[in-house]
Amino acid sequence: MKLEDPLRKNLGELRLTGDRLLDSPPTGERFFRELLNTAVDGERLLAGIVWMVGQEGRLQAFCDAGLKNLSADGKLTVGPNELQQLTGALQEGKVVVLNGQATINSGQRPRVIGPLTSDGRSIGGVELFFDSEQLPGGHRDLLHFVEEWCGYGAKYLEQQRRASQQPKDPTGFWEQFERFTLELQRSLNVREVCGIAVNDGRIIIGSDRLSLVLKEGRRIKVRGISGQDDVEHRANLVNSMRNVAKQVIRVGEPLVYRGAIEGIPPQLEKPLATFLQESRSRMALFLPLYPRDEFPHKEEKDPNTPVRKRKVKPLGCLVVEQFSESRPLPVLRERAELVADHVAASLHNARRHQDIFLLWLWVAIGRFFGWFRGRNLLISLAVIAGIAAAGTALAFVPWDYRVEGIGKTMPVIQQSVFAPWDGDVAEVFVEGGEVVKKDQPLVRLVSDDLREELVTARNEVNQKDKVVVTAKSLLREARARDSEENRNEIPRLLVEQLRAEHELLAVKERVRILEDRIEKLTVRSPIDGIVATFKVKQKLQNRPVRRTEALLEVMDHTGEWQLELEVPEYRMGHMLKALERSEDHTLPVEYVLATAVETSYEANVTKIATRTNESEEEGTIVEVYADIDADTLPSRRIGAEVEAKINCGQRSLGYVLFGDVIEFVQRHFWL
Fold it and tell me: Which among 329, 339, 289, 118 is positioned nearest to 208, based on CA atoms?
């Protein structure tokens, strides 16, 4: 609100004096006297009195100014009614104009009364006497002037109240500040330093909010706001704060807003107004952050030589805000500048630390070599020696390289019995595990097709036999008649006889073949041995079978035995090379039975299959056969599972232990 000409000049002087007195507050009487002398000009405002509530709750004159403008002797006489009227006006808690009479030695004057409040209660007031002739019109400008005067008085009283509550020896503050500086120096990470600066620094300063804006190259960024873990850079508050801080950093001078825009540089008025609208702050302090002074050069120069100092640019800006009062709290400015100096030094150190090229690498190297100190050096040497010894042993100590395989014990002589013809199993003569002799019947098949063909062939034999008999009879009759016609007929009849005899022989041969096939439907054992098929009758009885279908197996369990092993294909390279190096083209094998792992047996690889097969457990495998001494086995059980290790010669201990890893890398990552 702009005042009219009569009091505008007085209001400007009042503000200058009030701000000066609040910055360096004198004693109470001096403060109010100087503030009162600024208001009383002898023309419009003739005199003034500051009243304070005494110990008994009565108003007492604290100080006065300009009373000689009202009376020649400068004395004031206030009656009981007027004092009661003054007390009532102050208890209302607002500025009022009283046109009633106040008894003064020289006459009667109109006056305006304003309250002085502290901690929410009225503890006094100011009474200003004015000349109505010098203030024509309404009293709106006068009321505003007195409100400003009372506002400065209330700020002073509040400032004194807070100062009285603080201890005279603020050791607690310095202890807290020392912890704050230690926390700043403990980290060389810019992000962590910013977080400590805004959160702990706000408590040290005593502000409502503390923010940190940094200059990063040509860009200005808000890196920390107290009470927030992260900064939303697209927020309106952050953008407006960055715009004001950018100008402050460019100029390099602090900026203070105390509730009035007067005195603010023109280029900052618009961005500051936008920031205040977003932040709702009543007081804002922007302090540029300057890095610490560089250390002087080790080589001392001539002191008479003038040193040209370069202009140091701010590295950022500290933003201090208050929401409740437009006037900075006591010692806020001093504490803010103190915090700003330490924050700037910590940020400067952190930035220089993070600007080191390949910092993470040098830190890792430093930590590595830093560990080799004191007793750790002996420990490290012992560890290195141990590692070197282990590496040497792994590289040069020979060890048997063995390839593992799984398999079973089987007789060498094995015979599979197949169905000779399509048919049905009519009878099974043996059981699984039964010992049989060579040519002993095992299974009898029946074939309706063969029987039908045999019946048909036998009928053809009878027919062809009759044809032969007839042909022979006709030939005899023709030879008995001696005539020209019969002589010509004899060759033809002879040919028919021969043809009939040949057809008869072919049909008889067919009958013989069918009878042989029917005979072979009784399947016999090809060798002496044991039936190796389990539950033969359950599998074959009354079951139709196809020709060449395997019915059962017979194995010679009394002869030689062998191991039938399945070895993964990727292991075969070691075995083939070992076989080439072997003089007798065999490889030693050590195996154990699945039913008796406590005892190991020996064998020799004699044959390796020339093609691969598929296994459900091992994938692609190669069948390997090894001769064994069956007499050493506790029992000759066909198909007993074994786990075998084939010795493929000696390799380095490291390859024996970690060969699978080496081969895996070679298979999957070798170019």
Answer: 329
pLDDT of residue 266: 84
User: For the chain, which ranges sit under pLDDT 70?
Assistant: 1-8, 74, 76, 79, 99-109, 132-139, 163-171, 262, 292-311, 329-330, 482-487, 670-671
**Sign (positive or negative) of CA dihedral 23, 28, 31, 35:** positive
Q: Which pLDDT score, from 0 to 100, does residue 15 have?
A: 79
The DSSP bridge partners found for residue 87 are none
- Alpha carbon distances (Å) from 183 to 83, 224, 347, 367, 442: 59, 16, 13, 22, 96
CATH T-level fold of 171-293+312-354: Beta-Lactamase (3.30.450)
pLDDT at 486: 64
* Cβ-defined contacts of 54-63 (< 8 Å, 24+): 59/83, 59/86, 59/87, 59/90, 59/124, 59/125, 62/28, 62/29, 62/32, 62/124, 63/29, 63/32, 63/33, 63/36
Taking the C-alpha atoms of residue 41 and residue 609, their distance in angstroms, rounded to an integer, is 124
Question: What CA–CA distance (Å, rounded) separates 34 from 152?
Answer: 12
Q: What is the pLDDT of residue 102?
A: 44
- Beta-sheet strand order (sheet of 111-118): 59-65, 45-53, 121-130, 111-118, 96-98
N-term to C-term CA, the chain: 84
CA atoms within 13 A on the CB side of 171: 1
- The DSSP H or E segment spanning 193 is helix 190-205
The encoded tokens of residue 306 equal: 């003038």
**Beta strand 121-130 pairing with 111-118:** antiparallel
| Residue 427: Cβ-neighbour burial (10 angstroms; 0-12, 13-18, 19+) | middle
The pLDDT score that the predictor gives to residue 298 is 39
Query: What Rg, from alpha-carbon coordinates, does the chain have?
Result: 61
The pLDDT of residue 645 is 93
**Residue 189 one-letter amino acid:** N
| Per-residue pLDDT reduced to its tens digit, 608-649 | 988 888 888 778 999 999 999 888 888 888 889 999 999 998
At CA 473, angle to CA 472 and CA 477, rounded to 5? 115
Q: Look up residue 500 and give its two tokens.
A: 């009939």
Q: Record the tokens describing residue 121, joined without a space.
A: 């209660």
Residue 317 φ/ψ, nearest 5 degrees: -150, 140
Q: Tokens 């033809």 correspond to what residue?
A: 492
* 567 phi/psi in degrees, rounded to 5: -115, 130
Q: Tell me the domain boundaries of the chain.
A: 5-165, 171-293+312-354, 360-395, 415-549, 559-669
Tell me the DSSP string of 96-108.
EEE-S--EETTEE
* pLDDT tens-place string over residues 35-46: 888 888 777 788
Residue 619, beta-bridge partner list: 615
5-165 CATH fold: Beta-Lactamase (3.30.450)
The Cα–Cα gap between 213 and 315 comes to: 9
Nearest to 152 by CA among 335, 25, 54, 281: 25
Q: What single-letter amino acid sits at 355?
A: D
Rounded Cα gap, residues 646 and 589, in angstroms:
5
pLDDT value, residue 123: 83
What lies within 8 Å, CB to CB, of 122 at 6+ separation is 53, 90, 91, 93, 115, 116
Beta bridge partners of 645: 404, 590
Please name the fold of domain 559-669.
Elongation Factor Tu (Ef-tu); domain 3 (2.40.30)
By the 8 A CB rule, do 592 and 599 touch? yes
Fold match, 171-293+312-354 / 559-669: no
Strand partners of residue 587: 605
**Strand pairing category for 544-545 and 283-289:** unpaired
Beta-bridged to residue 552, according to DSSP, are 417
